[in-house]
Amino acid sequence: MRLPAICLSFEVHQPYRLNTRMSGEDFHKIRMEDIPGAYLDDTRNREIFLRVARKCYIPANEIVLKGIEEAGSSGREFKVNYSLSGVFLEQAERWAPEIIDQFRMMVGTGKVELLEQTYYHSLASLFGPVSDEFREQVKLHRELIKSLFGYEPKVFENTELLYNNAVARIVWEMGYKGIIVEGVDRVLHGRSPNHLYLAAGTGLKVMTRNYRLSDDIAFRFSERTWPGYPLTADKYAAWLSSTPGDYILLFIDYETFGEHHWPESGIHEFLRHLPREVLKYENLSFNTASEVLKRFEPVGTIFVGELETISWADVEKSTDAWLSNDMQVTCFNALKRMERAVKRSGSENILRAWRTLQISDHLYYMYSKRGPSGVVHAYFGYTDQMNMYYTMMRALSHLQQLAAEVIGGAAGEAVRLLRVVPPDRAFHYHEDGRYIGLSAHSLYELLQTIPMATKDSILFHMACRHLERWVRWTIGDRELADRIREVEADTSDELIKKIASLVEERIKTLESRISV
Fold this sequence. Notes:
- 51% of the residues lie in helices and 11% in strands.
- The protein has 24 helices and 12 strands.
- Strand 4, helix 6 (165-173) and strand 5 form a beta-alpha-beta unit.
- The longest helix is centred in the N-terminal third of the chain and has 32 residues, at 42-73.
């Protein structure tokens, strides 16, 4: 008899939210010893965490614990997987330590598997091959799980299921046996998500999420116009029993149970009855992720190029949730480029602040597209995109200034000159008295945008000495400003090429000083 494994898994993450009420002047007053806390809205973070704890974490944990006990008394097994972010666990320890005790009890039953992820639920896996940050955050998470629960995860779940071949190689090199990813149709090419696959070029086993069955609970449970409404545990168990494949990976945001769907919706009752209804079927069993990896063999290969990175976010199931507009890309690039300076500073406060700013939710809140994905982002957001962007950029600029001061000397000066500046101090390209929708927040972006600007815009700004003055007085690089002032050319194309060459040469010089 076919015995498909039900692999019930939960993402448990709660971000720190930035204090978006702070002005630029407020950031100037923040001292080294005050970060990263001074960047955060502590009151809001505590209120939200305690609300979600009351509505979701605590009651859902009680239900799962009771389900494990009841299944055991009937001779069956109810097993669950959890992926707990480091910043979630920090807040639980601080504001609701009973949640940590509940998870310890779960792990103690032997029926719960804890998955690995990045400590800060970050996008560090996208920083590229020259960065060590992804590995370091995974190590931090591993150490935290070990210290709190005496447990060593064996299966990996990257932030928001972000996945490509490069991520797979690193996860395989770190010694994990498998990874959970989204069952994206364009990657599966008609194949079922209910089988194991191998990551291209590695021995890493890939578990693909059945997003249709997962989203029936996560998104459609309270949707009265959905044909499946109302979703009851017995109906859902019947769907699982009739689903072909080796296993069914149900991966769901834990806040589904009480926060996204309020207790009044019946979501807690659904979770309470689900184990019992599933285990009525002799052909169904609950398995942990590691058990699925042991029970079944891969039936094919998963190939995802780095430019085709997938995730479980939004209808696009790509990186769009965090990197689809200029605001998000500017912040992401600033975070990525700060790594050498942050780690050279040797300051634990600066390192911790930088990693706190890496929490993927900060970029998520800057999403600006409309449509179904925009509706979801608006639900989670706590401020408008532009306010979030200004706050993030001010924090990044302030943190780079602090790092420059700590490092000191020529290297510190290089860090200061390569920093980002907030939007209100950026270089905004104009033509005929109007903004052309192009801005530079650093020398890096100046180099990137010069070829993108219109020739008339460059000629205008050079004639008025705007570029020179911005580099001199905002960035503070007098040497580069003097060189820009002296540029001469016979054509606009030659002028643009010379300016870009000067900026590129200056960036390389400054970077070399940081690397020494």
